[in-house]
Design goal:
Elements (H helix, E strand, L loop, with lengths): L3 H10 L6 H12 L3 H14 L2 H12 L5 H12 L5 H12 L3 H12 L7 H7 L5 H11 L5 H14 L7 H15 L6 H11 L19 E3 L14 E7 L23 H15 L5 E7 L3 E3 L5 E2 L2 H13 L8 H9 L6 E6 L11 H11 L6 E7 L13 H14 L4 E4 L1
Parallel strand pairs: 1-8, 2-3, 2-6, 6-7, 7-8
Antiparallel strand pairs: 3-4, 3-5
Helix pairs in contact: 1-2, 2-3, 3-4, 3-5, 4-5, 4-6, 5-7, 5-16, 6-7, 7-9, 8-9, 9-11, 10-11, 10-12, 13-14, 15-16, 16-17
């Protein structure tokens, strides 16, 4: 556990604070009683600018017991230590640290910088053995529309081509970054290499300077197909599905089949579509399902390889589910994140948290940010907003539900699909 005492011991482990700012941090951190005072104390480490200060900031950023806002503030302070004594250590450890979590956090901090000096370590991160570190570099590279960056990204795609074990998530992230830089929508290393060879000489970035809207706007759907090409999203994917009582709301006729000519319930529509997706997952993929109402109900303890047996077992699990209870979004997402192999989550819900240790939408998104600081898990959302909950005595705030599902996807690299 790294609270104020952990930080104090860490300072002593490096021989004790020898600078006024480190001594001031020690006092401020030991007296801190909330997020705001801890974040304020971190500024003293930035002011110190030493390697000791950077080491403490990294420890706090990775501490599982620190609030999300404090962890993210620690990363921001690491980013601000450019052109200080600590900077050489940050850049070196981003490449050499033993644990990939440390390298990913440091690369994320470097990616927040706007200086030319940050480009080289970000390009070096593209060759890291951990995909999480490579993905952490991409937001920073997306803001650097230069030929050497495009070349490095195309080479990164080419290195992925022979790796059957690599998830298509990594390819998709790199291709999205290339799209932001070039405005081109291409698929595969061969296509990108061909385009780049034909356009490299004299290439200029788009007029927007390589800046592009980070994520697509929410897509509104009335089609029974909720997951266009969902089988291509990832090969390490968890479907987090809402089975709370509000999923019993019936959708309009014509969206599927329900009893007596009525439209299907939100739950029936979700299950039918999820079964279709399971049938289309490639044989090399691995997947899991976490159903949730009052508490999460995982189908399996970990990702399961796609096979005839796993498909049959997953469908049988879906057939046993019954929509009832409240909507514990935070508990379900935490369970999905618990599997370290997962790189993509698809949340299917009517969107409004009503149970769990927090139902505050901003706090839920902040918690995801903390879990995702080094993971790079992409979160897609599908919001089931069709139908009228009043028929079951359920009062719904669809505007808030929609805003929440859009925010989760936007904040965590995914796309949101609204089903109305």
């Amino acid at each position: 556990m790294v609270g104020w005492l952990g930080a104090f011991v860490l300072v002593l482990a490096f021989g004790g604070p020898g600078r006024a700012d480190l001594r001031a941090f020690e006092r401020a951190w030991s007296e801190a009683r909330g997020e705001a005072s801890k974040i304020e104390a971190l500024k003293l480490l930035e002011a110190d600018g030493s390697e000791k200060a950077a080491r403490i900031l990294l420890q706090i950023a990775l501490a599982p017991d620190e609030p999300a806002a404090v962890a993210m503030a620690a990363v921001a302070r690491l980013a601000a230590l450019e052109n200080t004594e600590a900077d050489r250590w940050i850049v070196r450890e981003a490449h050499e640290a033993r644990r990939w979590q440390q390298r990913a956090a440091l690369v994320r901090a470097i990616a927040m910088r706007g200086s030319e000096a940050a480009t080289a370590p970000l390009l070096a991160a593209l060759e890291d053995r951990a995909w999480q570190v490579r993905v952490a570099a991409l937001p920073g590279l997306a803001r650097r529309p230069r030929p050497e960056v495009v070349e490095a990204l195309v080479r990164a795609l080419e290195r992925l081509a022979p790796r059957a074990s690599e998830s298509p998530r990594v390819r998709a992230e790199i291709e999205d970054t290339l799209f932001r830089l070039t405005g081109q929508r291409l698929e595969g290393a061969k296509a990108w290499r061909g385009w780049w060879e034909a356009n490299r000489d004299g290439w200029r970035p788009p007029s927007d300077g390589g800046q592009l809207v980070e994520h697509d706007e929410a897509t509104v759907s009335r089609s029974p197909r909720l997951f266009p090409a969902a089988e291509r999203l990832s090969e390490r994917i968890v479907f987090v599905i809402d089975i709370s009582g509000s999923m019993r709301v019936r959708t309009p006729a014509g969206l599927g089949e329900g009893p007596g000519g009525e439209g299907p319930t939100r739950f029936e529509r979700m299950v039918a579509e999820l079964k279709r997706v399971i049938d289309r997952l490639p044989a090399r993929a691995a997947f899991n399902i976490v159903a949730f109402s009052d508490e999460p109900q995982p189908w399996s303890r970990r990702l399961q390889r796609v096979s005839a047996r796993s498909r049959k077992a997953a469908k049988a699990f879906l057939d046993r589910l019954e929509p009832k209870g409240q909507t514990n979004v935070i508990g379900a997402l935490e369970r999905a994140f618990a599997d370290p192999q997962v790189d993509t989550i698809v949340l299917l819900s009517d969107g409004y948290p009503t149970a769990g240790r927090t139902i505050d939408m901003d706090k839920i998104s902040a918690e995801l940010a903390r879990w995702n600081l080094t993971r790079g898990v992409r979160v897609h959302t599908v919001a089931f907003l069709s139908g009228d909950g009043r028929s079951l005595g359920i009062v719904e705030d669809k505007a808030s539900a929609r805003a929440f599902m859009e925010k989760l996807a936007r904040d965590h690299g995914g796309r949101c699909r609204i089903v109305e």
